[in-house]
Amino acid sequence: MSGDWETAEGILDKYPEEVKTRMNKEGHTALHIATAASYTHFVEQLMKRIPDEEITTAARGNTAFFYAAASGNVKIAQIMLEKNKDLAMIEGRGNVLPIRIAALLGRKEGLELVKFIWEKIVLLDDQRISGLMVGKCRQKLIFIAARRGKAEFLATLISSYPDLVWKVDDENNKYTIFHIAVKHRHVEIFKLIYEIGSMTDVINAYRDGNENNMLHLAGMLAPASQLNVVPGAALQLQRELLWFEEVKKVVSVREMEETNRKGDTPRDVLLKQHKGLMQQGENWLRNTANSCMLVATLIATVVFTAAFTVPGGNGQDNGIPILLNRIWFKIFAISDAISLIFSASSVLCFLSLLTSRYSIEDFRCSLPTKLILGLVFLFIAISAMMVAFVATYFIIFKHGLNRFALAIAGIAVIPILLFFVQHVCLVVQVIGSTYMSFLLFSNTIEAYKGPLTRAKARELHGLIQEYIGKEYEDGKLSLLKEFKWLILVQACMDGIGGVQ
């Protein structure tokens, strides 16, 4: 077949019934062959002559539309669906839907085809669309997306179908996407709850099989993959407390005091499940405080002694330092005083850490603040002590040996740099976790718009494969199950102009 429509048109004008003729033993019609060969103009003209019932004719179990989907020919698929949108619901050989073939092609054409087919599906009534989205099976796509933290996709879905916020993944647990977001600590998905207004109250009323509400879930220990996002037990516990406080903002006072089947309130769950993390955090803070306080004490002792044994000595008549008017002596005196003051302050901060009661609330702000102040004060004390040390050398070697003093000054920078490099990351992390954590829940995510990049296409493909792998039963997929992953496809491609 060459795609010569003029010749074919002359034949069909004379023999109209030939449009239905099976042209080989497999049962292929002219429409099947033209579609498989991607003769777009031929198919377009042929569709005008084929009765509606003939469009669904199958050859070897596949309709002509199935071939269009397999080849990724968007134009031909559009022509067919415009005439009969039910073609998208007809399974091909092996009970495979055309949409699945199109989506798994991974090419721009296949993704555009899926988008077009989805636009036809959304014209169905709400009940059928809802069924396609969640169905009755246990593994539902929107909840797989929620567990994997696909916030952009879910934001797009909710903006188009607000009823999704009511859906639960299990009749016993009754987890909405927000419950899953809390349980798996997906910030971007949880922030969508601020966009649904008063519906939050109804969602908060859902309980799982153990009568846990959303705040109970926030009190449970996060998965290891989420805990390890921040280093150290103390900061991990701080992040867990931040989650607990954030969820408290969206639940009622009554739900804060509710008990689950074991008789535990959300706070009880928080204390029980984070007991080990609290102990690890306490041990780390105590060990850090002990080590740093020892260093701060040594510095305080040294600079206190140096204050009374000034370089050059004191005058015998009045006890005033002999080198009082020299610039380097003044630098020595000021640096020594600063070092003494800040080393003493550092000792007090670390002492406060050691004597703290270490309640779980203290890990949120009190203990990190003491640690930050102690380390900052200790750094200032070390720096000032080294400045005083260098100033002493400039005083002693003031006559012709300034080069020696300059060399000592260069070497004296090393302890300061070592302390800074070794502790700056810790201090920055603690400051960010303590005082900048409000940014974590500040901005809500928007529904995804714009071009579908290759990275997002691969991400989508992986999610579809995970879903299909969980849904496959004896090598077959039911019609209802097959279409549920289209929700994510639509969310991903809403407004795309093609794969980049």
Automatic annotation (TrEMBL):
One Pfam family named in its UniProt record: PGG
Keyword flag Coiled coil: no
Single GO cellular component term: membrane
Membrane-spanning intervals of the chain: 293-310, 331-354, 374-397, 404-421
Alphabetized Gene3D superfamilies for the sequence: Ankyrin repeat-containing domain
Name under which the protein is recorded: PGG domain-containing protein
Entries under SUPFAM superfamilies matching the protein: Ankyrin repeat
Cross-referenced InterPro entries: Ankyrin_rpt (IPR002110), Ankyrin_rpt-contain_sf (IPR036770), PGG_dom (IPR026961)
PROSITE patterns the record matches: ANK_REPEAT
PGG domain segment(s): 283-395
Swiss-Prot/TrEMBL ANK repeat ranges: 60-92, 173-205
Originating species: Hevea brasiliensis (Para rubber tree)
Keywords, comma-separated and alphabetical: ANK repeat, Membrane, Transmembrane, Transmembrane helix
Top-level taxon of the source organism: Eukaryota
